[in-house]
Amino acid sequence: MDTMNQSAEALRFDLGESTVRDLNQYLHHELAASGVRHIEVTNPNGQHNIAVGVDAPVSVDIQGHAGYFVGGMNKQAHITVHGNVGWSVGENIMSGSIRVKGNASECVAASGHGGLVVIEGDASSRCGISMKGCDIVVGGSVGHMSAFMAQAGTLVVCGDADPGLGDSLYEAVIYVRGSIHGLGADAQEEPMSNDDYAKVADLLERAGFDYDLQDFKRVASARSLYHWNADHHQEY
Amino acid sequence: MCGIVGLLLKNPTLNDSLGRLVTPMLESMSERGPDSAGLAVFADRDQGEKYSLFAQDEHFDWDALERALDEALVPTPSIESQGRYGRLYLGVEPDTLRHWLAEHFPDLHVLSAGHFMDIYKDAGHPAAIAQRYGFTGLSGSHAIGHTRMATESAITPAHAHPFTAGQDFCLVHNGSLSNPYKIRRSLERKGIHFETDNDTEAACRFLEWRLRDGDSLEDALAQGFSVLDGFYTLLMGTGDKLALVRDPFACKPAVVAETDDYVAIGSEYRALANLPGVKEAMLFEPKPEEIYSWTR
Lengths: 236, 296
Fold this sequence. Notes:
- Chain A has helices spanning 20-34, 194-207, and strands at residues 10-14, 38-42, 59-63, 78-81, 97-100, 116-119, 132-138, 152-157, 173-176, 187-190, 217-221.
- With 236 residues, chain A is α/β, with parallel strands linked by helices.
- Chain A has a domain at 103-232.
- An eleven-stranded mixed beta sheet of chain A has the order 1-2-3-4-5-6-7-8-9-11-10, with helices on one face.
- In chain A, helix 1 (20-34) links the parallel strand 1 (10-14) and strand 2 (38-42).
- With 296 residues, chain B is of the alpha+beta class.
- Chain B folds into two domains: 2-47 and 138-295, Glutamine Phosphoribosylpyrophosphate, subunit 1, domain 1 (4-Layer Sandwich); 48-114, Alpha-Beta Plaits (2-Layer Sandwich).
- In chain B, strand 4 and strand 5 form a beta hairpin.
- Chain B is globular and about 55 Å long.
- Chain B starts with a strand and ends with a strand.
- Chain A binds chain B through residues 45-47, 65, 67-68, 84, 86-87, 103, 105-106, 124-125, 143-145, and chain B through 249-250, 253, 255, 268-274, 283, 285, 287-288.
């Protein structure tokens, strides 16, 4: 903690000087009793595991590009990355929010249970893979196999979706504003209901995006893969 | 896991700094590949026929090799050596040299042949290897490097990347192929000889065979997509080019940074984070099954 710039409610960690482990141990063990409400992280330089496992109502601003797993398992905290992120930002997020000002690599919010993840730029492949209840809003486009096996929650894509969207979907719902370059197995486009429009409007507002709701398409599971189907000669 | 890095300098005034720029990139990928490492460096001009050699014996007598070559093959060979590594300038065809070495110096391994390319590779921690062979002092127009975490074959200098075939062509690989033996059998039937049991060597020799047959690098890679099965991010170097592809699922990572001065490739952004001007670079993640190539 020698590099921290102490003040009453704000702290700065320079990851050029201290380690990710220093930062995370502070967040896990000392933050709660400190009264600190805001952490600024400088010089992340693509390092992995920044601000993983936080369980406190704190805001964390990461100034630069972060590596893998930033904000993983997050509870309560509001994390903003002022740059790009590597694989699996917000993996298994439980609550709180993570905002990425740039682009995200693969597996955004993989298996996330709750909370909100906003990617202002593009997200790469497997965005929202196996998501279990979190919400994801991507300002740009998503890569192939996004929302693969997604079980619950909502993925909103303001740009385009690459092939294999929603492959083997369970009960998560996807909304896409741009072009869908191919649906995965068992994913289908469905009509938008009033509830769908309300859901998209709410998430766009929380994410800070302003788009015409009429442009969004709904993609959900056809539910033919995960139900027993005797018509298929019990092959599944 | 493995780490790959590549750097192609667009601004030739940086050529003397190639090693200084690429070495921290390589070392930053040590966690992805602590077993072994290698670096291919391409000169910015034709240097005549040259060979990178690797000796089994760390006290190998390079002067004795120079004398023997002078007497038996071609007058005035020139060798620059550093421990087990030797760079030989010699105006003979690669096959002639290989046959002669196999007979007279069977413990010498030819790491590379070409007019532009030198290859350094060894087992051990990437930082130790960089130190051993003086990577920071190397110059040239482009380089590719690899840090290896072995998953499918032994940890030896020969199994380290880059792999090479033919002349002035090399390849590094992050991933694993599921059909290397099928590819290998089909190439061996065409008389192509393999040096290791490593899966990457199959990809390397397949692509070099296509190039030798007249394909452009882009055409060879397009063929590669239908022949190579498995996970791969492949980064290749030729006398004047770097080329990058990812498998159809993009299972293995890659990030590219491009500025007016250079194109830099890394498995992770960490590899690029300390390059000059990277904060203003155009950063992107290469798409699956697309061919990216850059010419110096």
